């Protein structure tokens, strides 16, 4: 799962530097307020957000990071072993990696708050970030690192049976499928990672792939092909999820022959990729054709001055923990330069 916009609860009074005029879109009269104008507020707490917090904290910019109330840490909180993040010879569990980043940011004084952002006003010299209880944070610079969210199949029964056999998180829900026959949809690295993890619990995992080849990397493809508990259904699309109160079977159709079939399973894990989480900013920032936030070249500079973006929300291509972290570093350095130029 992905990082949701996040929050705060207490105010930190800072030197306001050159930018302390409230902007249009500030707190409505009577709303709980935070009178300080922070140097930088970071929205989102995946590798990009935490890395931006580490760098801006070390630059004495006293970042406030709004981490999300239930989604702090982002997608890696739902991942098992991360084998390709440099520096960990034997790999590291996704949640451990994120907890380490969070603690590293706090060690340098980052103010991490676990609430959800409901709106942002990004125009003008002072931006505002409003959280669920109506509190408004003001900031001279904002970093948007809201990550991405799981793609859905768009089937009628998907929502109804969500939590009743339909899941997007093997590490969260895999345990409930001990000794059962389940399915995973998708042909990318995520789907294979989920399927492999689920073989620890399930008797059999059917991997449903819509084409006749994987999108996943070679090492992951081989892992799926070599696993005796994973059966692959190529050229298959799920057209229906059946079950009164819990998943009982899936309707499938062969994408080549058009032949329908049914698959008896008690669980369905959807791992068909994710989309950038741009809901908060889509009406204020320029987006790309891929629906990511548009940034200028290799920078994190968006279409509005003082607003920077990092991580999966700007990246339609690489989408790795390490590239998100690097992108967070870029945003932090860009913020440093931006604020220094304002103050000079
Ligand atoms: P991807 O976009 O890479 O793969 C999505 C998969 O789902 C594709 O096989 C795609 O099929 C399929 N798909 C998409 N929509 C549907 C649909 N409606 N019905 C059925 N199938 C569908 O997403 P991932 O989440 O797998 O990976 C995202 C990024 O994260 C990648 O860069 C990946 O490398 C990385 N990652 C790396 C890991 C690792 O290194 N261990 C682990 C997990 C992720 P099609 O191919 O036909 O489009």
Automatic annotation (TrEMBL):
What region holds the FAD/NAD(P)-binding domain?
38-328
GO BP field: removal of superoxide radicals
Enzyme class, one word? oxidoreductase
Give GO MF terms, alphabetically: thioredoxin-disulfide reductase (NADPH) activity
Q: What is its EC number?
A: 1.8.1.9
For this protein, the record's InterPro entries field holds: FAD/NAD-bd_sf (IPR036188), FAD/NAD-binding_dom (IPR023753), Ferredoxin-NADP_redctase_2 (IPR050097), Pyr_nucl-diS_OxRdtase_2_AS (IPR008255), Thioredox_Rdtase (IPR005982)
Keyword terms of this UniProt record: Disulfide bond, FAD, Flavoprotein, NADP, Oxidoreductase, Redox-active center
Reaction(s) the record says it catalyses: [thioredoxin]-dithiol + NADP(+) = [thioredoxin]-disulfide + NADPH + H(+)
GO cellular component terms attached to this protein's record? cytoplasm
The cofactors required by this protein are: FAD
What single Pfam family name could you report for this chain, choosing any that match? Answer: Pyr_redox_2
Q: How is the cofactor bound?
A: Binds 1 FAD per subunit.
The subunit structure is: Homodimer.
Give the UniProt family note.
Answer: Belongs to the class-II pyridine nucleotide-disulfide oxidoreductase family.
- What is the protein name given in its UniProt record? Thioredoxin reductase
In its UniProt entry, the species of origin is given as: Kocuria varians (Micrococcus varians)
């Amino acid at each position: 799962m992905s990082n949701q916009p996040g929050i705060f609860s207490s105010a930190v009074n800072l030197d306001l530097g050159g930018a302390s005029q409230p902007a249009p879109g500030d707190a409505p009269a009577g709303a709980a307020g935070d009178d300080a104008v922070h140097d930088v507020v970071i929205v989102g707490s995946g590798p990009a957000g935490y890395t931006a917090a580490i760098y801006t904290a070390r630059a004495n910019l006293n970042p406030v990071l709004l981490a999300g109330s239930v989604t702090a840490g982002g997608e890696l909180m739902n991942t098992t072993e991360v084998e390709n993040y440099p520096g960990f010879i034997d790999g590291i569990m996704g949640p451990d990696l994120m907890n380490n980043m969070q603690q590293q940011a706090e060690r340098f004084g980052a103010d991490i708050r676990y609430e959800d952002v409901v709106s942002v006003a990004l125009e003008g010299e002072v931006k505002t970030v409003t959280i669920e209880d109506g509190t408004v944070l003001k900031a001279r610079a904002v970093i948007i690192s809201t990550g991405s969210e799981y793609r859905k199949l768009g089937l009628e029964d998907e929502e109804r049976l969500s939590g009743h056999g339909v899941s997007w998180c093997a590490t969260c829900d895999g345990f409930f499928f001990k000794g059962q026959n389940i399915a995973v949809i998708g042909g990318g690295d995520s789907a294979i990672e989920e399927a492999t993890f689920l073989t620890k619990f399930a008797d059999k995992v059917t991997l449903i792939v819509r084409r006749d080849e994987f999108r996943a990397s070679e090492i992951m493809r081989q892992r799926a092909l070599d696993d005796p508990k994973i059966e692959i259904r190529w050229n298959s699309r799920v057209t229906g999820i059946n079950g009164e109160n819990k998943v009982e079977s899936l309707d499938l159709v062969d994408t080549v022959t058009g032949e329908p079939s049914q698959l008896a399973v008690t669980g369905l894990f959807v791992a068909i990729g994710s989309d950038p989480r741009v809901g908060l900013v889509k009406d204020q920032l320029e987006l790309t054709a891929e629906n990511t936030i548009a940034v200028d070249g290799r920078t994190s500079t968006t279409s509005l001055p003082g607003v920077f973006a990092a991580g999966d929300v700007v990246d339609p291509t690489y989408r790795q923990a390490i590239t998100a972290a690097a992108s967070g570093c870029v945003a932090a350095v860009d913020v440093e330069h931006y604020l220094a130029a304002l103050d000079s």
